[in-house]
Specification:
The chain is built from three helices and 20 strands. The protein is mainly beta.
């Protein structure tokens, strides 16, 4: 029982660490959100997969120009103190500290099989400084520039790892991320309205590198360069409460290794700022040095109050696999459906997902069930829950202006 408990904590910490670092711009709105996500594969024996964290954002913290963001998971904490107009009008600065247990752990998958003897635990901490500039303060849709530098230290330890498997060297990673974001998306499950077009670069430079694994069959590279872009649109029809979300994201890389590659899989929409979802697959099952992923979700009310809804989602991706982790076929697709209960304070999703091209025991096809929840403590205090019916103009300002400084 103790081993199972430890394993659950380990996996939730991995997912939460990604979710907590998701929102890399100063959030101007007060928020108190509880976020839960869980996928349970019905084939194979991978670790349980999900996220659980509390997101608290407090503008005018101590002073009117300060914003404090905290995201707390069972074994991980991420924080940022944002200073409005720190470098002049419309140029903000954020100082971040993050760290905790199991955040840098690695789970090894190859052609649909989870290799426990090649997986290991990782512990880490991070400090960062970000500069966020708004280029068009008078425009309806904000155009923001981001430059963020960080130092992250990772230390590894075995957990049911093979005795002859050499762990990666403990190391520090210096990272620089730059990007342009037109529009934006709030840190919410199925936002009512959002639009974003963005382009990003991240360089990672390590203090230690070299071979590891079984007789040095894999390596940590001295540096990795990542390039990606995203376009998304979310919309809710005010008369019917029908809603859809579509997303196109693609990335490439230079010198990527297993610790820096793009990793796709599972349907956990708040697991990161750029979740690479493939319904029905294991979380981070696919490792890629390049990819294109397109997907969409549609929500349809099924009764007069619009509290209860059905949801369908589909994702498909072309994948350029990381060397050593290839599998037959470059196209991977997955679909999902479920029941959604949504009010202004609570969103609950119970669903089923099918990984069309996932490999399991030499065959294609994988099944999973999942649960998602968002609980808005601030909205819950306002009284009787009502389904969201945002006015178009108000929602447009609120969502697309989410990152106006």
């Amino acid at each position: 029982m103790q081993g199972i408990q430890f394993r659950l904590q380990f996996v939730f910490a991995i997912c939460c660490s990604w979710a907590l670092t998701a929102f890399a711009q100063i959030d101007p709105y007060p928020r108190q959100l509880v976020q839960l996500g869980y996928n349970a594969p019905l084939e194979g024996k991978p670790p349980l997969q999900g996220y659980a964290f509390f997101y608290w954002n407090k503008p005018e913290f101590y002073r009117t120009n300060l914003t404090l963001r905290l995201a707390v998971a069972p074994t991980y904490l991420d924080s940022e103190l944002g200073v409005k107009n720190a470098l002049g009008d419309h140029t903000d600065v954020g100082f971040g500290i993050a760290g905790g247990a199991f955040a840098d752990s690695y789970e090894d998958f190859d052609q649909g099989t989870f290799y426990r003897d090649q997986s290991y635990l990782g512990f880490g901490g991070e400090g960062s400084v970000g500069v966020y500039h708004l280029f068009n303060p008078d425009a309806r849709i904000p155009l923001s520039g981001v430059v963020r530098g960080s130092y992250h230290y990772s230390a590894y330890t075995p957990y049911q790892t093979a005795p002859n498997f050499e762990l990666p060297p403990n190391h520090g990673t210096y990272s620089i991320r730059t990007g342009l974001r037109w529009g934006g998306k709030e840190p919410l499950l199925f936002p009512s309205l959002a639009m974003e077009v963005s382009a990003w670069y991240e360089g990672q430079y390590r203090s230690e590198a070299g071979p590891y694994g079984f007789n040095g069959d894999r390596a940590v590279n001295w540096d990795s360069q990542l390039f990606w872009g995203q376009a998304l649109l979310a919309y809710t029809f005010t008369n019917t409460d029908q809603a859809f979300f579509v997303n196109l994201i693609g990335g490439s890389s230079l010198n990527a290794d297993r610790l820096s590659a793009y990793r796709l899989g599972a349907f956990l929409p708040l697991v990161g700022e750029f979740p690479l979802t493939l319904p029905g697959y294991y979380y981070q099952e696919i490792s890629a040095k390049g990819f294109v992923l397109i997907g969409g979700t549609f929500i349809q009310p099924i009764e007069p109050t619009h509290l209860w809804n059905v949801m369908v989602t589909a994702d498909t991706s072309w994948v350029n696999y990381l060397p050593g982790l290839q599998q037959p076929g470059n196209w991977l697709s997955g679909v999902a459906g479920g029941i959604v209960y949504r009010t202004s304070a609570v969103k609950l999703v119970l669903g089923y997902a099918y990984g069309i091209d996932a490999i399991r025991d030499g065959h294609r096809g994988a099944n999973s069930i999942g649960f998602l929840m968002q609980f808005d403590l601030k909205q819950a205090r306002t009284g009787v829950p009502n389904p969201e019916k945002p006015g178009r103009w108000n929602a447009w300002q609120q969502i697309l202006g989410a990152f106006v400084h």
